[in-house]
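Consider the subject:
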Amino acid sequence: MKDLKTSIFITTYNWPEALSLCLQSIMYQSILPDEIIIADDGSGAPTLKVVEDFKKISPVPIVHIWIEDSGYQINKIRNLAIEAATHPFIIQIDGDVILDKHFIHDHLKIARANRLNIGRRVRLSMDKTKELCQTGQIRGLHYLRSLALCRIHHSLFYSNKTVRGLRGCNVAFWKKDALAVNGYDESMQGKGKNDKEFGARLINLGVKGYNIRNYAICYHLEHLETKAYGAENIQIFQETIDKNKTVIAKGIRKY
């Protein structure tokens, strides 16, 4: 969409080397966002230094939202970022991804009213991740980018009514739609199904999911992470599907 004002927000927690690479990749975008929001789940001083350093060189405003380190509070910090966003279209990423230089351009190209952009990630090896973090420079990242392939892939393999493939590291939506469902569900504790539950309520509201492959590319820095999902989160997600839920009680509106 031409001339669409965009906020991009980045969730981060105590990995300043990755955040620096992520912010570098935003600085190199063919189309810059109108605002960058750092959604910080309690990081320490090294992350703050990265943010302050980039504030000095960024051509667009950088807003740092920080909450006290009290465990994994991803839904809370995302809700604060959504609430703080000053522009109508929001691109959400994680601080452990590096963006292709056309990433924002591609999300804007695909953006439509009543649409949820569901992007993918290209996983980097542990060796490549270590190299990038040690050098602090973004080099040697290449992946096939094609809008035609993206459209064909979506039409052949995906429905507009599912959240299949949705990950919080690469998703874009309208702020008004996020507010309509009251954002992320803060009753969900720990990892697992947080992103999909939010996306499911958007789709239940009538928003159409659009799966993106070979377009709006981001590269995921490899790291150890738990694969265990809490049973309660899985249950909440399933209830959202089964009961066609759109709005949750513990979300944005309390802020």
In short: The chain is about 35% helix and 20% strand. The chain has a mean pLDDT of 94. The radius of gyration is 17 Å.
